[in-house]
Amino acid sequence: xxxxxxxxxxxxxxxxxxxxxxxxxxxxxxxxxxxxxxxxxxxxxxxxxxxxxxxxxxxxxxxxxxxxxxxxxxxxxxxxxxxxxxxxxxxxxxxxxxxxxxxxxxxxxxxxxxxxxxxxxxxxxxxxxxxxxxxxxxxxxxxxxxxxxxxxxxxxxxxxxxxxxxxxxxxxxxxxxxxxxxxxxxxxxxxxxxxxxxxxxxxxxxxxxxxxxxxxxxxxxxxxxxxxxxxxxxxxxxxxxxxxxxxxxxxxxxxxxxxxxxxxxxxxxxxxxxxxxxxxxxxxxxxxxxxxxxxxxxxxxxxxxxxxxxxxxxxxxxxxxxxxxxxxxxxxx
Length: 333
Ligand code: TRP
Fold this sequence. Notes:
With 333 residues, the chain is mainly alpha-helical. It contains 13 helices and 5 strands. Tryptophan binds next to strand 1 and helix 7.
């Protein structure tokens, strides 16, 4: 019989986590979620809801519960297929937290002091930075290393965390012997950083997000709110300096992009017109997922069942890694 952690012979294993902290926006969708769905055919795929990571910022029980279910609904609606992807919740697998402790003990504090999340929080002058935020990259390393992931598909902002996971894995392997696979970050170049409707990084907390599952009216308002310059309607416009065009390009073929660029350059075409085209495009792309989500919402029993079955599969791998680690460090007497 194959050992539970035996990898598929011909497929690389990918793993990624997404924090339930807010409504999914087009930055999450284009930067990560869409890609996760696309990759499940080619790779042996593990996707999980990083609910333990959310605890560094979400302190309300009801809110967290809702965020977890919402994110599960989002992913299933977008096409994560539980027959192809092991889709689970981080907190269902105690090994994540257990391995974090072991990894903490080989991780230099100086490395974590350089991690963005902590550094930014400190630079902002946040009064109470919790130890969880400081240790965030180590929990993330445990997530990745527990499953011997080869590739970690993430947005550019998470690259540093994957590099920290690589360093921690290397350090552990040097001290105790080869256990961990050294993971590679996998970042689709063309959509690495999605701007918000005001040109800053898209984030719920900046109020500049386009939420993929927002009600129609709300979605329209978000698209119409994209910031543009004040070039009058009649005048030619430069598509390369416009956000509406940028969003449109993420969703379009080269041909469609070219045709819109021509309209911009010809003049007599306003940003309002461009926004209408973008909204149509967005609705075309999202319609099937939005409908699917409405259906799934009626059946949250199915959703929790999928997560439970995913956890059963994930557990086999994580517990095999734990056994190996416990043996190496001397905890298995
Ligand atoms: N930190 C990631 C984010 O904020 C989420 C995450 C947690 C993750 N654990 C992970 C991503 C493991 C990839 C692999 O987006």
